[in-house]
Amino acid sequence: MPDSDRPADDRLRFAPMRRADIDAVVRIETESFPTPWHHGHFLHELDHNPYSVNRVLRCGGAVVGYASVWILDAELQVNKIAIDPAHRRKGYGRRLMRRLLTLAAEMRCRRVSLEVRPTNREARKLYLKLGFVEAGRRADYYGPGEPAILMRWVLPEGEGDVVGPGRSEV
Ligand SMILES: CC(C)(COP(=O)(O)OP(=O)(O)OC[C@H]1O[C@@H](n2cnc3c(N)ncnc32)[C@H](O)[C@@H]1OP(=O)(O)O)[C@@H](O)C(=O)NCCC(=O)NCCS
Q: Is a pLDDT exceeding 90 seen at residue 72?
């Protein structure tokens, strides 16, 4: 269902991830990925990685999704994006990804890239709907015999320029 057909949810907020959010993020992460990042990994991204930008989607205060990206060399690389299983298929994933595309434009990135498992139909459909294209395959990316599909979203000509590393705030 397109976003325009969904009832607006005024309780939704896209916000910087805080240390206090990590437990909720790790719970969703563990329910979403076969080899999840642990608490310390997110803490490192928040406190020590200057290229890392981490966001949560809140609904009425509760974390219902999150994304962790790097912004580097005019590229926004999506490392993690997930929605709480209890809140999927409500348009939240699309909204979160759209906010990342807006962030990429604000940071003057030229492209957005990510890797996805060929078996992850839901995510691939979401990305294709938002205008991502398949840009190749990475053999053994997730382990022996487990390739990744590389997907890219390119900003319209002239909208991207130079981007400096560092944290962004939206
Ligand atoms: C992928 C993910 C983020 C989608 O989040 P979501 O909030 O459920 O997605 P949305 O409700 O915004 O759906 C957007 C589009 O994605 C596609 N989609 C999402 N879930 C789907 C499903 N179960 N089956 C088929 N298509 C699906 C549809 O095209 C949908 O558009 P539509 O509603 O118009 O049909 C979510 O499934 C998730 O967290 N998965 C686990 C983590 C993960 O795989 N992350 C991506 C790693 S690359």
A: yes
Return the number of other C-beta atoms located less than 10 Å from residue 111's C-beta.
16
Ligand 1 centroid to residue 120 C-alpha, Å: 9
**Helix (H) or strand (E) run with residue 128 in it:** helix 121-129
**Which letter does DSSP use for residue 8 in this model?**
P
Write the DSSP string, 10-77.
TTEEEEE--GGGHHHHHHHHHHH-SS---HHHHHHHHHT-TTEEEEEEEETTEEEEEEEEEEETTEEE
Residue 116 Cα to ligand 1 middle (Å): 12
Q: Point out the ligand 1 atom lying closest to the alpha carbon of residue 126.
A: 16
> Does domain 3-154 match CATH 3.40.50.2300?
no
The residue whose CA has the least distance to atom 17 of ligand 1 is 126
- pLDDT tens-digit profile of 4-23? 445 457 789 999 999 999 99
Pick from 170, 10, 19: nearest CA to 98: 170
